[in-house]
Amino acid sequence: MIDALRPYVFLGVAVIVATLSFLVIGPFNMNIDGDIYVAQVEQFESGQVTNVPYNVAQRAFKPAVGVLGSLLVPFFTPTEAIQFLNLLILFALPFVAFKFFCECGFTEKEATWGAVWLMTGYPVLKYGLAISTDMGSWLFALASAYFVLKGLRTDSYRTILLASLLGFIGGTIKEPGVFGLFFGAIYIAFTYAQRPIQKTITLLSVLALPAFICETILFSVLIYAGFPTFLDWYSVVTVEKFAAEHYQLLQFAGVLASTFSILLVYALIGFISVLYRRVRLYDTTHAFTAAVLLTSLPILLWKIFISRVLFIQFIFFIPMALLGVRTLNEYVGSRKSVLKLQTVLYVLPIICSVGLFLLAGRGSLFDLFTRIFG
């Protein structure tokens, strides 16, 4: 793809995604704790941030959207301010994803398609523009992972430090924002043989300590002021507050189908190809694969199984899916056949995700599966 056209493609995809989301779900979806985040913006705007009501105080450990939203209130209502921030993040997301996939070792064409897959994922369509903060955490997780890889490639401690700070900021938006740091730490650890052990320890320290120190300061301030921390909040989130259907087999099937779609098959092919050394990314393919897989595990500690929570896994599975497409292309002989297969393989996940979103409508994939099979 011509470099000059790529920004217009990304912007066009973002406009289509926003349009579909607004038409199907509505411009102000409050179902994902929207009233809580609106109240947080109102508190920061008024300058009276208190630990009452408790459900708002529970989000004090992730204040970024509340602070930024309050700065926009002179121009927007609190609800509109959050949505404006979400739209900015939506338009930035494909550009950051493209840079990350390129830094992973993919061609610009592969990275472009990976970014489009990310944008058209079901959770972005369904939850990305809800009055919530999920998409901001996805953006910062990608950005911190990108700067880790760039810092290693350019041998720059400053870039690694930037990745650490971005990971901390991502965590103050929503918890998955720190997952880029998990990815980076695992990747550095698994590539220890490429450098002296002292340098590996230094790299891990530069990546982890700034974010840890900033988070410790934030938690200390919250505890001193009488606010609940993340651990307090997590301890009161119980599965009993969610409907029993969240734990049925059809719900699990719907979540997996909506989150990963056909890309799960691509990722499995890519993983098998890595195991049998069919494809490579630089000289660190296995370290990269370990980082991708292990980064996804902490999200399983979350107490419910829904696609917007699992989407952070989807982000880090896309590189494996791109390797799967690369593997499938190798089994096709003629150039004409390769081009036809590539087109099908690249477009199919988009059709699946958008199709599932339109079929599910304002309901969930569980509702759709229930209508079909129930």
Layout of strands and helices, then pairs:
Blueprint: H1 6-24, H2 34-46, H3 54-57, H4 64-72, H5 78-103, H6 108-119, H7 122-128, H8 134-154, H9 157-173, H10 179-190, H11 197-225, H12 230-236, H13 249-260, H14 263-275, H15 285-295, H16 307-330, H17 335-360, H18 365-373
Helix pairs in contact: 1-5, 1-6, 1-7, 2-4, 4-5, 5-6, 5-8, 6-16, 8-9, 8-10, 8-16, 9-11, 10-11, 10-15, 13-16, 13-18, 14-16, 15-16, 16-17
Describe this structure in words.
The protein has 374 residues and is mostly helical. It has one domain (6-226, 244-373). It has 18 helices and no strands. It has helices at residues 6-24, 34-46, 54-57, 64-72, 78-103, 108-119, 122-128, 134-154, 157-173, 179-190, 197-225, 230-236, 249-260, 263-275, 285-295, 307-330, 335-360, 365-373. Helix 10 (179-190) packs antiparallel against helix 11. The longest helix has 29 residues, at 197-225. The mean pLDDT is 87.
List the defining traits of the structure above.
single chain, 374 residues, 72% helix, 18 helices, mainly alpha
User: How many helix segments?
Assistant: 18
Mean pLDDT: 87
Cα separation of the termini:
45 Å
Backbone shape = globular
Low-confidence stretches: none
Element order, helices and strands? HHHHHHHHHHHHHHHHHH
Q: Tell me the number of structural domains.
A: 1
Annotation, overall tally of beta strands: 0
Helix content: over 70%
Radius of gyration: 21 Å
Category from helices, strands and their pairing: mainly alpha
Oligomer: single chain
Measured by DSSP, the beta-strand proportion falls in under 5%
- Biggest beta sheet summary: none
